Amino acid sequence: MTTRRSIEIPGLGHGAQPIPAASLVGPLLVSGGISGKDPETGTIPEDPAAEVAQAFANLRAILDAAGATPEQVAKVTVFVKDRDIRAHVNPSWLELFPDPESRPARHTLETGLVGMRIQLECLAYIG
Hints:
The protein has one domain (4-125): CATH 3.30.1330.40. The protein is α+β, with helices and mostly antiparallel strands. It is globular, with a radius of gyration of 14 Å. The chain is 21% helix and 28% strand. Strand 2 and strand 3 (28-31) form a beta hairpin. Helix 1 runs parallel beside helix 2 (89-96). It is built from 2 helices and 7 strands; from the N terminus they run E-E-E-E-H-E-H-E-E. Strands 1, 2, 3, 4, 5, 6 and 7 form a 7-stranded mixed β-sheet that branches.
């Protein structure tokens, strides 16, 4: 029987909603929406580059809490409010996934995000 475990990160909750940051089922890690919210202040940075960097830092925190590494990430979906923020994604992407021979798949979608400019979703296999 496979057991599911909720992955919680202080400061990155979904408000009053009973939704974890991610869920680990056997070796499969699936995140919910990962924003660029600063877990210390609870605010979204005003600077777009800082918001993107914080979203990737939050992704890293989820991986760490689940016992995963960036090398185990299979796919990252990047939701953007406006395509202009895409210019800020690659620096954080390359920092988290520096090896051009070993990067996860990535799909970027423009969507109507509220109160933020970027949100990430992650799928990882922790084998």
